[in-house]
Amino acid sequence: MTTQEKLIKPKLKLLELADYLGNVSEACKIMGYSRDTFYRVKNRYEEAGMEGLREISRRKPNRKNRVPEEIEAAVCELAIEFPAFGQVRTAAKLFETREHQISPAGIRSIWLRNDLETKKKRLKALEAKVAEEGCVLTESQIQALESAKQEKEACGEIETEHPGYLGSQDTFYVGTMKGVGRIYQQTFVDTYSRVSFCKLYTMKTALTAADLLNDRVLPFFESEGIDLLRILTDRGSEYCGNLERHEYQLYLVLNDIDHTRTKVRSPKTNGICERFHKTILEEFYQVALRKKIYSTLEELQSDLDDWLDEFNTRRPHQGKRCDGKTPYATWIEGKEVANSKMLAA
Question: What is the pLDDT of residues 130-139, one digit of tens each?
Fold first, then answer.
């Protein structure tokens, strides 16, 4: 949400509340606005819609402080010619090719004035220019467009073909229990079927991350005759480290499991686990911890196991491959694909 959207939101709420209550004075009292402000906001909204609620800066720009028009035009040309360049590289390129010296902050100011401040907007401007003029793309422009396409695909659906093709593992902080201390949950989700495993610990280490696989996940896969081929984790210290001294990394190597890490600062690339954590928080922890006072970790783990059994075998899942079936039913259907792939290999 942008700063402008944050400023617009309370004004919209004021108008909606006044309409709901049918009383302007009461709405202004609740929201902390004066009646004059209400009618000013209402008039601006009726005249210009959402745009009328935007904050208008009272500052008047001093055009004498701006760079010459030819430099501003050159910066805009470079923004389209090299859309993947940031403001520092653009400033360097401008000096190199046009011998115009301008600071990176000055580059950004020009971008903001011309609606080019993000890579996405610069690529959009490039596409519009190509569509209008039919010009031939340079190598740099082609690379920028292909890179944007790959990033878009990378943020889309996780590639998974059958049970065991890709597992997703993450750590979830449950909370603090009196007499026990901090509680962490190690979570594993099969990305194809959504069959899930969880185990509670009082620490967050590489050893506990490996213990979940050893105690719950791989025994299940072995009993089903399915191999776990690859696992996706974030870049936390419990999952990444020196191979020679890191228990989790060693465990994956010993069991011939490939390890994929998420993009830096992009938790959505492990979105299946993140979504499962939201589900388990809302449907299990927020309910169980209100109904019962737990004194031991084993007691909480027992109730968690019962909930997981229901989640995996009785609760319908609305994911793409489950489509109303339970995760375990989806697993059974997908085993045929996994077995045929194993035979083909």
Answer: 777 776 666 6
Cβ-contact 71, 77 below 8 angstroms: no
For residue range 179-203, list pLDDT tens digits in order.
999 999 999 999 999 999 999 999 9
Domain boundaries, the chain: 3-53, 66-154, 167-344
CA distance linking residue 203 with residue 296, whole number of Å: 15
What does the pLDDT read at residue 169? 95
Three-state DSSP class for residue 200: strand
**Quick one: pLDDT at residue 153?**
45
Q: Tell me which residue has tokens 């467009």.
A: 145
pLDDT at 100: 81
Write the burial class of residue 190 (CB in 10 Å: 0-12 exposed, 13-18 middle, 19+ buried): buried
Is there a contact between 193 and 163 (Cβ–Cβ < 8 Å)? Answer: yes
Distance CA 285, CA 272 (A): 19
Is there a contact between 231 and 259 (Cβ–Cβ < 8 Å)?
yes
CATH topology of domain 167-344: Nucleotidyltransferase; domain 5 (3.30.420)
How far is 321 from 121, CA to CA, in rounded Å?
35
Summarize pLDDT for 214-226 with one digit per residue, the tens: 999 999 999 999 9
214 and 150 Cβ atoms separated by less than 8 Å: no
Give the Cβ contact number of residue 246 at 10 Å.
Answer: 20
